[in-house]
Amino acid sequence: MKLYEIANDYVALMQAIENDEIPEDCIADTLEAIKGEIEIKADNIACLLKNTEAEIKAFKEEENRLAERRKVKERALDSLKTYLSDMLIRTNVLNVETARNRISFRKSEAVEVDEKFLKWAIENRNDLLSFKEPTANKAEIKKALKGGQTLEGVKLVTNQNIQIK
User: Fold this and answer.
1) pLDDT at 125 over 90
2) Higher-confidence residue: 68 or 36?
3) What is the 3-state secondary structure (H, E, C) of the chain?
4) Quick one: pLDDT at residue 62?
């Protein structure tokens, strides 16, 4: 039997008890039996939840480990590229062609921005700037609400969150 079926049976039993459809000598045993089934199912689901949480944690740890390995490889790649580029430019060898590789340089343009520009642009030309969309700071909003402030468009709700340890 599935947990939702047991829960439906429990609700039906409670309604039957309220309507005096079940003899009083049967109520305690029936309630205890249904409660026992609910506890067994809940325990099994809690074990499944713990197992899934452990798998998720292992996945995250592996992702972090792989991300760190990737970052090390990226730094080594950047360092090696910079080394090759610097040495070729230093020796004025700007084209290399072998059976396996062709190395050359191309010109590119990039804009470098410093703090002076940002200050100037804020005062004079904010069309040269991009702005992120604002987001609500929920921690500060919660503090304000708990401090007795009234804020438009927000409310503090209390949820029931299951804990499994």
Assistant:
1) no
2) 68
3) CCHHHHHHHHHHHHHHHHCCCCCHHHHHHHHHHHHHHHHHHHHHHHHHHHHHHHHHHHHHHHHHHHHHHHHHHHHHHHHHHHHHHHHHHHCCCCEEECCCCEEECCCCCCCCCCHHHHHHHHHHCHHHCCCCCCCCCHHHHHHHHHCCCCCCCCCCCCCCCCCCC
4) 98
Comparing CA positions, the residue from 101, 104, 125, 102 lying closest to residue 113 is 125
The answer to whether 88 and 96 are in contact (CB under 8 A) is yes
pLDDT at 163 over 80: no
Put residue 20 in one of left, alpha, beta given phi > 0 → left and psi -120 to 50 → alpha.
left
Q: To which residue do tokens 């991300």 refer?
A: 67
pLDDT above 90 for 89: yes
Distance of alpha carbon 164 from alpha carbon 44, whole angstroms: 12
Mean pLDDT to the nearest integer, 13-35: 85
What local confidence, expressed as pLDDT, does residue 165 receive? 66
Phi then psi for 102, rounded to 5 degrees? -135, 120
Residue of higher predicted confidence among 63 and 164: 63
